[in-house]
Amino acid sequence: MEIKYAVVGLILKGDDQGKYVKIEDDTSGSTGGIYILISDDEFFTKNVFDDWLLSKDDILEYVEESRWTIQWR
User: Fold this and answer.
1) DSSP string of 19-45?
2) Which residues on adjacent β-strands are paired with residue 10?
3) Structural domain includes residue 41
4) 36 belongs to a structural domain
5) Is CB count within 10 Å lower at the N or C end of the chain?
6) How many domains does the chain have?
7) 1 confidence band (pLDDT: 50, 70, 90)
8) By the 8 A CB rule, do 11 and 69 touch?
């Protein structure tokens, strides 16, 4: 699966189906990790939740465990 950073995607299948996702790379920033942002709307203003991952190596496993199919915008 292709992973895109700082791009909004619609979750077509899996956990959180119908919600939007955005992956933010903060490995060079203050947290040193990866944010997975999930929202009810594509502008990330309604019911926004986040998960934090230690490294980019963890993203694919996270997406697979969530059983996501993502349509990137």
Assistant:
1) -EEEEEEETTSSS-EEEEEEESSTTS-
2) 20, 71
3) yes
4) yes
5) N
6) 1
7) confident
8) yes
Structure-token pair, residue 49: 């939740």
Mind listing the pLDDT tens digit for each residue in 7-31?
999 999 999 999 999 999 999 999 9
Residue 16, in any domain of the structure: yes
7 CB-side CA count, 13 A: 10
In a domain, 1, yes or no: no
**Residue pair 3/58 in contact by the 8 Å Cβ criterion:** no
> Any idea which residue has 């791009």 for tokens?
7
pTM for this predicted structure? 0.94
Tokens 């060079």, residue located: 28
Q: What average pLDDT does range 40-60 have in this prediction? A: 96
Residue with tokens 């895109």: 4
Q: Return the closest-CA partner of residue 57 out of 33, 30, 28, 29.
A: 33
**Boundaries of domain holding 31:** 7-72
